[in-house]
Design a protein that fits this description.
Elements: E1 2-8, E2 13-19, E3 25-29, H1 36-46, E4 49-54, H2 60-63, H3 66-73, E5 77-79, E6 114-116, E7 122-125, E8 128-134, E9 143-147, E10 156-160, E11 163-164, E12 167-168, H4 178-189, E13 197-200, E14 206-207, H5 208-214, H6 216-223
Parallel strand pairs: 3-4, 4-5, 5-6, 10-13
Antiparallel strand pairs: 1-2, 2-3, 7-8, 8-9, 9-10, 11-12, 13-14
Helix pairs in contact: 4-6
Length: 239
Amino acid sequence: MLVAGFPAGSLGANCYLVAPGAGEQCVIIDPGEDAVPGVEEVVREHKLQPVAVLLTHGHVDHTMSVVPVCGDYGVPAYIHPGDREMLTDPQTWLGIAPGTPIFGRSKFVEPSDVKELTDGVVLSLAGLEITVDHAPGHTKGSVTFRTPELQDIPQVLFTGDLLFAGAVGRWDLPGGDREELLASLARVCLPLPDETVVLSGHGPQTTIGRERATNPYFSEVIGHGLTEAAPPQIKPRGM
């Protein structure tokens, strides 16, 4: 399996292209601010044929280039319905007034073809089997994407802003919730094998084993018994 990633934009959001190998179809994960040149370079270098854009969540640093990328390759964008509104109104979900310029842009539109993700669905795209897990906490519609173990290649988990090397995503923006994030960490990440490779929305590569041993939020989840077998009781939030 080929995975090529690069940080883009002023916030260094990681964009990934994933394919069975060079010269084959691929998916593009989280094309954010200024990601178009990097996508074009990876596509050209490895002779790839994009078939879809997958979004881990709706924050604009991960979606800024979704319209041009989808348009350039004529492909759909996949996003969880909980975050779909962010494609056209990212400002509200960052706690700022609608129409406020972000990265120099004030108006946002959806790609022409948007498909909604559901928890547990397995996407068959580009010759890959990609499992989607709903993982709210950073945003209401955050998801992770997971590829299976293949012979000598461990499974890979694209975590967006749920889990980073040594940290987790922030929960203080609209739609964020600390208890939901910890519950997602327990349900989605904690049960995975130690050798699972973690490719996050910002920062370097890590593994589930390394995070289990060193990440203070993993320690908190384990210490409070937030496991798949004993999920926490999360109080609903609303008006």
